[in-house]
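Study the following:
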Amino acid sequence: MTEVAALTWRQYRLERRLFWRNPSAAFFNFLFPLILLGLFGAVFSGNQHDLNVIVPGIAGLSVMSTTFTALAFNLTFLREQGVLKRMRGTPLPAGVYLGGLAASAVTNTALQVTIITLAGKLLFGIPWPRDWPELVLFAAAGVVCFASLGVALSHVIPNFDSAPAYVNAIFLPTIFISGVFYDAASAPAFIKDIAEGLPLKHVIDGLSGAMVTGKGIGDHLSGLAVIAVWGAAGIFLAIRGFSWDQRRD
């Protein structure tokens, strides 16, 4: 057990170095949400209500981008370049390698949520989170849900060239429908109905409850149930469809 933990730690450190050595990955999966926070924070600097919406919204977007988007892209690339197949043929346990990838994505999420929380307090007038356990719970639930869905989506993507189309076809509509950039309560009824069935809306609501509104976990149990259903489906599909080998046309 100690040896597995040591190997996982070494793989995690390698993944962190590889991440920061890839400027495009570092930008789109880490810096892009922070840039959006800065831009929208500047636009709504005189409107506290909108800032109260934007800060937890960008935090929710960050959870999705650093897990769903990053893992869908990375696993597709690694599979189609034959990296996964080569790793499978080495003595390194499969769980150690995948654990290093997952831990790196979790680290990015934790860093993003921490930075956004600090920025919300220091720059945008958002109080310190009123319920830290709720903040951690919804961030963790979002990580598990979106990470599993990202892995599952990577099985569907036929090649890396088409990965942006597949990922953005899901990511972009989801962030707009789920109320990342506006108060979802003011959206048309049919948009709200769609959002209620998506996990991101409930992750944002939970983060907003912890950071802004003060609503506790008990007020978001139905939202947790939606996230759990999506997460369970994602885990099932991620495991069922996983392949170490390249696709053959």
Observations:
- The longest helix spans residues 48-80.
